[in-house]
Specification:
heterodimer; A: alpha/beta; two-stranded antiparallel ribbon; 8 helices; 29% strand; globular; B: alpha+beta; Muramoyl-pentapeptide Carboxypeptidase, domain 2; 2 domains; four-stranded antiparallel β-sheet; 10 helices
Chain lengths: 239, 339
């Protein structure tokens, strides 16, 4: 059976069997840590594997991700024309020039309907979905509504065999809500700065929530303008 | 000496046989076939130089002198040929039915063999001898069976010509090596082990760098982008990298679609194992080569994507070539944003 990978060597090495299509990954990290770069790696890998990649841009216009991919010599127009790279503008509201745009950023039902419509148009294909960041869509939403949305959406994604990468910016949502949400995902990837403020180090942990515990190991990584994310040491994921 | 029917047939069979043999050569068969044809005429020139009497260095006059000699020997009728100057070129016209090589000329295309006009080759030898210049040839035969030949000073780069000088192998005069697929594969398996994140970048860059200078040199000889591109694609085929086919080329938009059948990278992947964890496009070397070719030809930065790969599915790999889009998004201060 076909499995998906992140496209980040140090990370993939530890997911020997890869990610099943239908898996969901929660990425939680501080601002500036490299969550969007990771999203870019995930998309690049998907495009090389023949997947259809959907990127929902909530924190910046979709053009930012296009530019980012182009800086890695990924010819985004080729994939967009082939309908294998789809951008959803959940940033600009009414001013968007994108084919797919969210008209009301404060309405989760509208988002769910748009996502469902786009995924419906991709039926029969292997799909990777990235929401960057889902926490932005949840800002000012009620916790109960968020969890309802989460459960319904993830159930649908799993059923449709979509690999989804949901990004959360640390500190935007309540810690308790994050913990509960984390249980819904197959994998959790946490990214944060460590060390002194003069010499901060980027760290990441990938793991699962098991028996109320986040089981993982922690490793350093850097961001290269040529290679993207480079994990500097071996990572072990306790399954 | 009068040429009899049996001798004529024998000469034509020899031509066909030589073409059939040359076609089997892995490299430069066209070049060596041409050399064989020219060399035959050179022997005639050496042996009969006193009788031919080259009084003028004018290409038409020199070739006519050769034709008169052959006529005197009973090999052909000089009057069957029409020769005229056209700028740097020499135009030759003859009815195919009056040519000694008629049978070869008709049969070679049917057998899928390369066709080199022996008469034009003899003129190449004459012009090299009289003017000291190497000429190339082109030939067309019209519906009424009249052959229209053209000889023009050679400008063609000889990238595909492989020679051996004792233990030194050369391509186009520069030292080369024959690399078995196994060695190539070992090289990249080693990179996979030591720097797996770098594989696709190494392949792309290697393709780009190696193709850049070749494209630049070829463009100086062939300024027309389409003609130049066809020659460059021919080099890929001659080098054994794959059977490439230009599906479409829009010069104005700077876009092209190329297919490659039997890419060597796919063959390596199938035979020696995958460089990647999951099935994916693998021909990054070609991506680099095509990006370089088109960047030189179109004088703008070009990107190339492999949209489908034989390593994953199908009978061919397909590449889409297009200009690198201008900056889509002007960078603004982004508090805490992490691109």
């Amino acid at each position: 059976m076909r499995r998906a990978y992140f496209g980040v060597e140090g990370l993939d090495r530890n997911l020997e069997k890869g990610l099943m299509y239908g898996s969901q990954i929660m990425v939680e990290g501080e601002s500036g840590i490299g969550k969007t770069v990771l999203a870019g790696e995930f998309i690049k890998e998907g495009l090389r594997c023949g997947d259809t990649c959907i990127y929902v841009a909530c924190d910046e216009p979709p053009a930012a991700m296009r530019e980012h991919l182009l800086s890695f010599k990924v010819g985004t127009p080729a994939y967009e024309e082939a309908d294998r790279l789809i951008f959803v503008d959940a940033y600009e509201e009414g001013e968007s020039m994108e084919k797919y745009a969210l008209s009301d950023l404060r309405n989760l039902d509208k988002y769910f309907a748009l996502e469902t419509e786009i995924l419906h148009g991709c039926s029969g294909r292997r799909v990777r979905l990235v929401v960057d960041s889902l926490s932005t869509l949840f800002t000012s939403m009620d916790a109960a509504d968020i969890l309802d949305f989460h459960r319904t959406r993830i159930k649908q994604l799993r059923k449709s065999g979509i690999v989804a990468l949901d990004i959360f910016v640390s500190g935007v949502l309540d810690a308790k809500l994050m913990t509960i949400s984390g249980h819904l995902y197959n994998f959790i990837l946490k990214m944060n700065f460590s060390g002194s403020s003069y010499n901060p180090m980027r760290m990441m942990q990938i793991g699962k929530v098991k028996s109320q515990q986040f089981v993982s190991s922690r490793h350093a990584f850097t961001i290269s303008p040529v290679y993207g994310i480079l994990v500097s040491t071996e990572m072990g994921v306790n399954e | 000496m009068k040429i009899g029917e049996f001798s004529r047939k024998l000469i034509n069979f020899m031509q066909l046989s030589m073409c059939k043999t040359m076609k089997q050569l892995p490299f430069s068969s066209g070049h060596w076939l041409e050399q064989f044809m020219i060399s035959t005429a050179q022997y005639v020139l050496e042996e009969h130089l006193d009788e031919i009497k080259f009084d003028s260095k004018n290409p038409v006059q020199a070739c006519l002198a050769f034709l008169y000699f052959m006529d005197r020997e009973g090999f052909l009728k000089a009057g069957d040929y029409r020769l005229e100057d056209s700028g740097d070129s020499l135009l030759v016209q003859v009815e195919r039915n009056n040519c000694v090589y008629r049978d070869y000329c008709l049969r070679a295309p049917i057998e899928g063999l390369p066709l080199y006009c022996a008469r034009l080759s003899s003129f190449q030898a004459v012009l090299r001898h009289v003017t000291g210049t190497d000429y190339s040839t082109s030939l067309e035969t019209d519906e009424s069976g009249v052959c229209h030949g053209r000889l023009f000073p050679s400008t063609r780069p000889t990238e595909e010509i492989v020679t051996r000088e004792e233990h030194i192998l050369k391509v186009a005069g520069r030292r080369a090596i024959l690399l078995p697929q196994e060695t190539y594969s070992s090289l990249f398996m080693s990179i996979k082990e030591h720097a797996p994140h770098a594989i696709k970048h190494v392949l792309y860059d290697a393709g780009y760098r190696s193709a850049l200078s070749l494209a630049g040199r070829t463009k100086t000889f062939y300024p027309d982008p389409e003609e130049c591109l066809q020659l460059l694609l021919e080099v890929i085929k001659n080098d054994g990298l794959g059977n490439v086919e230009l599906v479409s080329f829009n010069l104005t938009r700077g876009r092209a679609r190329i297919r490659c059948y039997d890419s060597f990278q796919v063959s390596v992947e199938n035979e020696y194992g995958s460089l990647y964890r999951s099935p994916q496009v693998t021909c990054d070397l070609f991506r680099g080569i095509f990006a370089a070719y088109f960047s030189v030809l179109l004088e703008q930065e070009i990107i190339c994507e492999e949209m489908r790969c034989q390593a994953v599915e199908g009978d061919y790999c397909e590449f889409l070539i297009m200009p690198l889009p201008k900056k889509l998004w002007e960078e603004e201060p982004r508090d805490g944003k992490n691109l």
